[in-house]
Amino acid sequence: MVPHLEGARYWISGQANIIFQGRLPFHAPYEGPNSFRNSAEYKTSLIGTLYTALRPTNSVRYNTDLIFDLESAGGRGLSQALGLAGFTNLDVVRNPNLGSTPYVARYQIHQVVGLTNRTSSQDPNFFALAPEVPARRIEFRIGKMTLPDFFDFNDIGSDSHLQFMNWTVDNNGAWDYAADTRGYTVGGMAEYDEPDWSLRYGVFAMPTVANGIAMDWAFSRAHAQNGEFELRRSLIKNRKGATRILFYANRAHMGVYREAVRSYLAGTDAAPNIIGHEHFGALKYGFGYNTQQEITENLRGFARFGWNEGQHESFAYTEVDQTVEAGGDYFLRRAGRPEDKVGLVFVSNAIKRDHQRYLELGGQGFLLGDGRLNYGRENIIETYYNLHAWRGLFYSIDVQHIEDPGYNRDRGPVWVGSVRTHVDF
Questions:
Q1: Distance (Å, rounded) from C-alpha 347 to C-alpha 204?
Q2: pLDDT for 202-258, tens place per residue?
């Protein structure tokens, strides 16, 4: 809405994103404490962020950025954001009792160490203010951040403000990335960049309990390691493309599904209870594959695959042990609407046998728990149309179809419609 000053050594901008979602009743012969409710319902979420950054010097080879962001997240999700592994609104904070009081979202020191005097241009943004960077460099970041800012990024499927809205579309659902309830953690990362490829690695704090707001600061017993290799190479001549391979390993006070099931079947526990079988230093690990490809001037495609070991409880992001997705978007430049686009994606999520058995016997995760389970993959189709109204103002219409919500063939299918207003200023 307001232009940025060219060459400025500071950054001030913001965004607001409002999503209204509603659904009609669907087939559901039973429901449990964590079910996606089958009655008609509508909810509205609102998130606003103030981005600020300062570049103390004009150095290109040894640039430093100081970053500080404030945020407010209000409103609620359908069914209190319970009952779906691929929940329909990424902006929803899973604990609505936190309220909409503003909080510090990010504070970071970003340091560039150039390894050559040869430079390349970049678009200044609130994570990196310099218009030029060394072509070969190391970048360090330390502070508070959300990991999808830097890992598993995809130009077509990573932005709930202008693209898809589903949790397991915008992020790899099998990546149980370190985060508090609002999606942020504290730690540090390093990134090595060449013109055609990058390698990044970071260590971050884990929450004390599943989906908790408090973090465990004893890094010796609880931490998340994340690494990613990115290759910027196209499969089509004169078009842009990229491939990213991600791995993660989380240590935290996590439970084991098999132990919880055995204890219940032996009569020790009155109900399957993963919390009663948590261990310090428990290890959960997995990997992800992420690719994007520009096909024509207006058409782009993308895909993801994710897997984790599935024996330990889903702890920070969502209850997915394996995921596969494919989709794309199309800009309406030929219709005289250069900023308008439509998107379509299919994502299929799954959980491992021990996780299935735990839910089947009546166990509850931090998102799922119908009391029973007739297992099937949770399959989701999402489509949207994004309309550019004026400068930084956008409107969107979005429709999602969820087959076997919460991996339960006895329930659904579910249709969710959304209207979104987004403002960049």
A1: 28
A2: 999 999 999 999 999 999 999 999 999 999 999 999 999 999 999 999 999 999 999
Give DSSP secondary structure letters for 273-317: -GGGGEEEEEEEEEEEEEEEEE-SSSEEEEEEEEEE--SBPP-SS
- Tell me the C-alpha to C-alpha distance, in Å, between residue 422 and each of 67, 70, 127: 23, 17, 20
> What is the b/e burial string over 337-370, where b = at least 16 CB atoms within 10 angstroms of the residue's CB?
eeebbebebbbbbbbbebbbbbbbbbbbbbbbbb
Where do we find the tokens 């678009």?
A: 123
Render pLDDT for 352-408 as a digit per residue (tens, 0 to 9). Answer: 999 999 999 999 999 999 999 999 999 999 999 999 999 999 999 999 999 999 999
The answer to whether the CB of 377 falls within 8 A of the CB of 173 is: no
| Dihedrals phi, psi of 405, to nearest 5 degrees | -60, 135
Domain residue ranges of the chain, discontinuous segments joined by +: 10-424
- pLDDT, one tens digit per residue, over 356-370 is 999 999 999 999 999
139 three-state secondary structure: strand
**Of how many residues is the chain composed?**
425
Would you identify the CATH topology of the domain 10-424?
Answer: Porin (2.40.160)
Interatomic CA distance for residues 367 and 95, integer angstroms: 11
For residue 219 the two structure tokens come to 């890094």
- CB atoms < 10 A from the CB of 121, how many? 9
Q: In whole angstroms, give the CA distance from residue 352 to residue 322.
A: 8
